[in-house]
Amino acid sequence: MKIAIDAMGGDFGPTPIIEGVVKALEKKDFTPYLVGNEKTIKELLPKKYHSLVRFINSEDVIGMHESATEALKRKESTIYKSIELLKSGEVEGVVSAGHSGASMSLATLRLGRIKGIKRPAIVTFMPTIKKRYSLVLDVGANVDCEALNLYQFALMGEVYAKVVLNTFNPKIGLLSNGEEKSKGNSITKEAFSMLESFDNFIGNVEGGDIFKGEVDVIVTDGFIGNIVLKTSEGVADAIGRLIKEEVRNSGILQKIGALLLKPVFKGLKKATDYAEYGGAPLLGVNGCVIISHGKSNSKAIKNAIFQAMKYIENDVTNKIQESLKVH
After folding, report:
1. Based on CB atoms within 10 Å of each CB, which residue in 28, 107, 274, 293 is the most buried?
2. pLDDT digits (tens, 9 = 90+) for 94-124
């Protein structure tokens, strides 16, 4: 399996990305195509791995502060070259922790959409109290959506949930401001009536339902979805900091109790850590594109690569195409 990796994208430069590739190579058999400054990459990559990878030299990197439209003109950039490798069939997937807007724009325009899909969507994983993930989409690809877009997000989310959650009949919910059918805005109300054609559609769900584990796929537009994602990350971080502060300022007995509860805190951190799943697939384009968090560490990159492999092995793109025919 051949996977292109944007080796220079991300907030922390190439070091955690190369470290993540090494960790992935230790566990799985695949060929990474490392796209970036070849000299820098070779210095970071242990020599014993040099024969296992392909180096694609690129001196240009799209900065996080730059406009996504810049990516279309910058044909020598790491993300452009990565997407072109996928378009040409030289690789089967792309992983990038770089500029997410550039990744989305190039994937949509250079690879094209799956026939019948109006807009691609980014899907992300959310922890639940049942110690399994739920999927939320869209979380940033589309700020404004029509009802048909939401319907198609449900279709794509259902396909992906079957692959990554190992759920034969994933439950689908529509994010709204109340569970009643009458709740929502004009777009979600229209989407509700369209989603009723799904046997596994359970109706409207509220924000808190995302974390209960009773619904597998939560559908919303990219504006609300991105706010939900960033708020969830912020809450998880804040809770972690509050616990540390309370322990630091507590008495000896409380500190002993905190030590006894250390495995519990560790489990909580793991459940809310985006590094556990690595990245967010861009569903609806003609190919496997995994968009990783800009702050990805080596563990996140490793898991993003594994997620790309699972996507490819399960032929998700074609399954979405086939699902369109069924629905």
Report:
1. 107
2. 999 988 888 988 999 999 999 999 999 999 8
Q: 1-117+284-317 with 122-275: one CATH topology? A: yes
The per-residue b/e assignment along 174-213, b for 16 or more CB within 10 angstroms, e otherwise, is bbbeeeeeebbeebbbbbbebbeebebbbbbbebebbbeb
CATH class of 1-117+284-317: alpha beta
CATH number for the domain formed by residue range(s) 122-275: 3.40.718.10
For residue range 143-165, list pLDDT tens digits in order.
889 999 999 999 999 999 998 88
Q: How far apart are CA 128 and CA 111, in angstroms?
A: 34
62/106 Cα distance (integer angstroms): 12
What ranges do the domains of the chain cover? 1-117+284-317, 122-275
Run of H or E including 92:
none
Backbone angles phi, psi at 197, to 5 degrees: -75, -15
pTM above 0.70, yes or no: yes
Q: What angle do CA 104, 110, 112 make, to 5 degrees?
A: 80
